[in-house]
Write a structure and sequence with these properties.
Blueprint lengths: L4 E5 L3 H12 L3 E6 L10 E4 L2 E4 L4 E2 L7 H9 L7 E3 L6 E5 L4 E5 L3 H11 L4 H16 L24 H8 L3 H6 L16 H13 L2 E3 L4 H13 L3 E4 L3 E7 L2 E7 L4 E2 L3 E4 L3 H7 L8 H9 L5 E9 L10 E5 L18 E5 L12 E8 L17 H18 L6 H4 E7 L1 H8 L16 H4 L10 E3 L8 H17 L3 H8 L1
Parallel strand pairs: 1-2, 1-14, 2-10, 7-16, 14-20
Antiparallel strand pairs: 3-4, 5-9, 6-9, 7-8, 11-12, 12-13, 15-18, 15-19, 16-17, 17-18
Helix pairs in contact: 1-8, 1-15, 2-16, 3-4, 4-7, 5-7
């Protein structure tokens, strides 16, 4: 029997998960990736003889009952993923510079409450209520627990659509503790008055249970997904970009690559940013003007400056947790456009390697940044941005490093080499509008525009990726399940994953 053919545009996490799922279900899958390496945000690269990731990754949902664990078990790749558990007594550290104080947060529900209660004993009851409220929010998102959907996104409790800062304040009276509890906000581009509480709850609970870290980079995870596709008869085309999508009537009939290759399929999945996919559709009249305007003008989440640092030997000790820097104990949601105070928040991590020693070999720093900071160079390409850009980049990196000496006093003299990425780097490498870390901004004031349907007007074209539901490794893989269910025509994929 002839297998149905699926063409996937983009070999990022969403495209690879969708391709792996469908190939496992018997489809003939072809993934086309513009870069020479697959994985999107899971790619690794070499600098100064060290391996760096294109993002800072902590993976959740990999405990035996976790959603990502079940997906990987179904795909048969559990033994190919190299992970290291964070410390039980400290999976996250929050450093508040204005107080010169570190808060070490233990993993697990009880560990989370107990560790924070040591710093805020008068808030123990409030912390218990706060955690229960977050768990209640996640329970209403069926797909998070790999259940068949029963409730629409727009029919939930009053907490569900509260802005994240109001949600925290609803349960927590201590202002300093409110800042500490915002420590995950860089993992979902949190904004006061904008980001819905359910996003905060899902990310927080995901990493509360059993957070883990990739050993020796993240690319092996992407390659494991790619192997599932190839083992099941699929194809991955690297280093070629889809340049045109040809449409006849209400169906896609073929895609054309940068080398002139024509690829045909029974159905197609776009795993790239929706505004980028629109540019590929040859017939501009296929989609309505209002649909185009919506995809092109929906605000994106903020971007970041990323510092990948090679450390001199035996200078900075390895830390087996994720660090979250706040400049003060009053405002965890400071406007990024306030350059005088930038960066108000920053993530820091020493990625583990095999046979990790006492000292770290690399250090990653991520500071959120608005696109406006680099807008003047938006028409330039990598390596051709000019001396003024290079000087600006060095100056901004110097500010980040100076901030982080509060955490690592010997940081400046410990640096052997440094690679700096900006929102322009992220835009060009990922093909993401404005270098957005997490795609479209999730706005509790306008959730209809924040959630883009994975269905399109074209009957055989579907969308996937972080712009449609949740972001991150877990969120994108869950969205891939939704996309695949549209193609499979039922919920059997969920059944197969749960029965694996």
């Amino acid at each position: 029997m002839c297998r149905k053919k699926v063409v996937i545009i983009g070999g990022g996490v969403g495209g690879l998960f969708a391709g792996a799922f469908l190939s496992k279900e018997g489809y003939d899958v072809t993934v086309v990736e513009k870069n020479s390496t697959i994985g999107g945000g899971l790619q690794s690269f070499q600098r100064f003889g060290e391996t760096f990731d294109t993002g800072m990754h902590v993976i959740g949902g990999m405990h035996s009952e976790g959603n990502l664990y079940k997906m990987c078990k179904y795909l048969g790749i559990l033994d190919k993923i190299n992970l290291k558990q964070t410390d039980d007594t400290c999976s996250d550290e929050v450093f508040v510079a204005s107080d010169n104080k570190k808060y070490k947060i233990a993993k697990g529900k009880d560990g989370f409450i107990n560790s924070l209660s040591e710093y805020f004993p008068h808030q123990r009851k409030e912390l218990e209520q706060y955690v229960e409220a977050m768990i209640a929010l996640t329970e209403t998102v069926d797909l998070f627990y790999l259940r068949k959907p029963t409730i629409s996104l727009f029919y939930h409790s009053a907490d569900f659509m509260l802005p994240v800062d109001e949600f925290i304040a609803k349960y927590i009276t201590d202002e300093k503790l409110r800042v500490v509890l915002a420590f995950h906000n860089l993992l979902y581009a949190g904004e006061a008055g904008v980001t819905p509480a359910f996003i905060h709850a899902i990310i927080s609970i995901l990493y509360l249970n059993d957070p883990m870290r990739f050993i020796d980079g993240t690319s092996h995870f992407a390659e494991a997904l790619g192997e599932v596709i190839k083992i099941n008869g699929g194809t991955i085309i690297r280093g070629e970009k889809i340049t045109k999508i040809h449409v006849e009537g209400k169906r896609v009939v073929s895609c054309e690559t940068s080398t002139g290759k024509s690829i045909e399929g029974d159905c197609y999945i776009s795993a790239i940013h929706p505004s980028a996919f629109l540019e590929l559709v040859e017939d501009k009249g296929v989609f309505t003007k209002s649909y185009r305007n919506r995809l092109e003008h929906t605000p994106n989440s903020y971007s970041a400056m990323v510092l990948n640092i090679k450390l001199k030997p035996n200078t900075i000790e390895y830390i087996n947790y994720t660090g979250h820097y706040f400049s003060n104990n009053k405002d965890a949601w400071k406007n990024l456009s306030d350059i005088e105070q930038w960066p108000n928040i920053c993530l820091y991590m020493t990625p583990p390697v095999k046979n990790q020693s006492k000292y770290a070999s690399t250090l990653n720093l991520i500071a959120p940044m608005n696109w406006e900071e680099v807008k003047q160079w938006e028409d330039t390409t990598c390596g051709r941005r000019g001396e003024d850009y290079i000087e600006w980049k060095k100056l901004r990196a110097k500010i980040v490093l100076q901030r982080m000496t509060a955490v690592f006093p010997n940081l400046l003299e410990s640096i052997e080499g440094i690679d700096i990425a900006t929102p322009l780097t992220i835009r060009d490498f990922y093909g993401v509008k404005h270098g957005a870390l997490y795609g479209y901004k999730k706005d509790c004031n306008n959730m209809i525009h924040s959630k883009v349907s994975i269905k399109t007007k074209l009957t055989n074209l579907f969308l996937t990726g972080q712009n449609h539901n949740l972001h991150g490794l877990c969120g994108v893989s869950l969205t891939a399940i939704e996309t695949c269910n549209m193609i499979l025509g039922d919920c059997r994929l969920l059944d197969n994953i749960n029965n694996a």
